[in-house]
Amino acid sequence: MHQHSLYSSIYILRVWRDRADNDSLCWRFTVEDTATGERYGFSDLGALARFIGTRAEANFSTDTSATH
User: Fold this and answer.
1) What pLDDT, on the 0 to 100 scale, is given for residue 62?
2) Could you give the C-alpha distances from 48 to 6, 8, 63, 66, in angstroms and in order?
3) Nearest 5°: phi and psi at 12?
4) How far apart are CA 33 and CA 19, in angstroms?
């Protein structure tokens, strides 16, 4: 398996239309983290965008005050 860079994450995004409880069509989304196999489900685009933003901030932020 390919090693991911410290500043890289790979997700598989699945998007489809589904019937909501009131029989109208709605979007559904799943995101799978390829490193862990974890899957996350969303029923609206805003929640998906917030998830990606939060994960990006957590994965790509660096503590510039740390010394090596």
Assistant:
1) 56
2) 23, 18, 26, 32
3) -100, 125
4) 26
